[in-house]
Hints:
Elements: H1 9-18, H2 21-32, H3 38-49, H4 55-67, E1 71-76, E2 79-84, H5 86-100
Antiparallel strand pairs: 1-2
Helix pairs in contact: 1-4, 2-3
Amino acid sequence: xxxxxxxxxxxxxxxxxxxxxxxxxxxxxxxxxxxxxxxxxxxxxxxxxxxxxxxxxxxxxxxxxxxxxxxxxxxxxxxxxxxxxxxxxxxxxxxxxxxxxxxxxxxxxxxxxx
Length: 114
């Protein structure tokens, strides 16, 4: 049986933040090119991933990712640099791995019959 403490609000927030295709594209882009300004991120999302959004729209998505601890926003003078928070993604990965070990094969139903 799985322990309750592993189902933390932090994991819930990460799932909520990653539950949007645009935010997934932002995370994928930052994994590929970590440490981008908002301008760079908007440009790459449009050119490389076909996601055309305004800076304001991308900024709102980043705020959601940041509040879930998935993306860090660091000020460097007048510029903000956006980076992936690897520890948060590692905790999500660990959370999923524990549960994957407890999954029954997909072909087995609750009654134990295929």
